[in-house]
Amino acid sequence: QVQLVESGGGLVQAGGSLRLSCTASGRTFSVYAMGWFRQAPGMERELVAAISRIEGSTYYSDFVKGRFTISRDNAKNSLYLQMNSLKPDDTAVYYCAATIVGRMTQIGTYNYWGQGTQVTVSS
């Protein structure tokens, strides 16, 4: 079992920055990759970015490339998402997730989820 807790959400103006954090506990050695997902009101949950635990390889969705950076600190069992140049369309609940298998770009492979943290970007 892996437990995930997000933090760092809040309200920012368009063009601003925010840094999300996720702390993992439990059987973290079983994790292959971790990712950030987001879900806006009335929308489906979508992958924002993902990173493999050991190799540190990353994936970014097109709508955040050049603006967001995903990183991890394995010693602290932590995952981060640095969000810059935020847009109102980035407003959503952001979720941290973990998978024990290699398909880190596929939402169905993630079996551990955090509770979510709200990010609101004003115009």
Q: Write down the Rg.
A: 13 Å
Q: How many beta-strand runs? A: 11
The number of helical runs is 0
Shape by Cα distribution: globular
Helix percent reads under 10%
Q: Runs with pLDDT <50, length 5+?
A: none
Could you give a short account of the major beta sheet? 7 strands, mixed
What oligomeric state best describes the polypeptide chains here? single chain
Terminal CA distance: 40 Å
Helix and strand element order: EEEEEEEEEEE
What do the pLDDT scores average to? Answer: 96
SS-based structural class?
mainly beta
Fraction in beta strands:
over 45%
Describe the protein.
- The radius of gyration is 13 Å and the shape is globular.
- It has strands at 2-7, 10-13, 18-26, 33-39, 46-52, 58-60, 68-73, 78-83, 92-99, 112-113, 117-122.
- The strands form two sheets. Strands 2, 4, 5, 6, 9, 10 and 11 form a seven-stranded mixed beta sheet that branches. Strands 1-3-8-7 form a four-stranded antiparallel beta sheet, with no helix packed on it.
- It has no helices and eleven strands.
- The protein starts with a strand and ends with a strand.
- It has 123 residues and is mostly beta strands.
